[in-house]
């Protein structure tokens, strides 16, 4: 490596291999209980929980460590209503044919349509933006690198953190999502990436059987030894 400013790795914790296996299994058992939910309770969720989860997302790796993400966390009923109206307008066009037959047929098993009441019911919406300009300091306006990859990883961290905290989530991606820039007052150099819905499941919430089908380890991996 080229010479650069650095400091010793001081917070790494090494575990015995037997404990590592147990921890990896425990994590798998916890994360496989994560489900995408479309039926949310209106029970409030403390802002501190959302803040902690966003801080966890902010630890994700990113291109040149520019951290090219911004999270707009929304609990204001008026703003949530604005988002629902704008999102449903795009969804109506999508389900009316803009999505194309193949895509619409793929969604049949999930039972989705152009009505998104959870955008108002759920206590929190988190609009995740990918920043084309930025840097390691908030005032920087440099080109960001590997933006979508970086924001995707951070979003995964956020979903995991919310699940670990005891909440359920839904990744919502109406196309186009430009309306989120206006509602959330973000600059044009920020691109709306995902609208994440977070809260408690409604009583009697259900999960589509289609969504419970997961590929096996053999289907999703290859090991070279």
Give an account of the 3D structure:
With 225 residues, the protein is an alpha+beta fold. The model has no long low-confidence stretch (mean pLDDT 96). The chain has 8 helices and 6 strands, in the order H-H-E-H-H-H-E-E-E-H-E-H-E-H. The strands form 2 sheets. Strands 1-2-6-5 form a 4-stranded antiparallel beta sheet. A two-stranded antiparallel ribbon has the order 3-4. It has a domain at 47-203: NADH Oxidase (3-Layer(aba) Sandwich).
SSE series:
HHEHHHEEEHEHEH
Shape: globular
Largest sheet: 4 strands, antiparallel
Number of strands: 6
Portion in helices = 25-40%
Q: Distance between the terminal alpha carbons, to the nearest Å?
A: 28 Å
How are the secondary structure elements laid out?
Blueprint: H1 17-31, H2 47-57, E1 69-74, H3 77-98, H4 101-107, H5 118-121, E2 124-131, E3 133-134, E4 142-143, H6 147-165, E5 168-172, H7 179-184, E6 190-199, H8 217-220
Antiparallel strand pairs: 1-2, 2-6, 3-4, 5-6
Can you tag this structure with a few keywords?
alpha+beta; NADH Oxidase; 39% helix; globular
Compact summary:
This protein has 225 residues and is an alpha+beta fold.
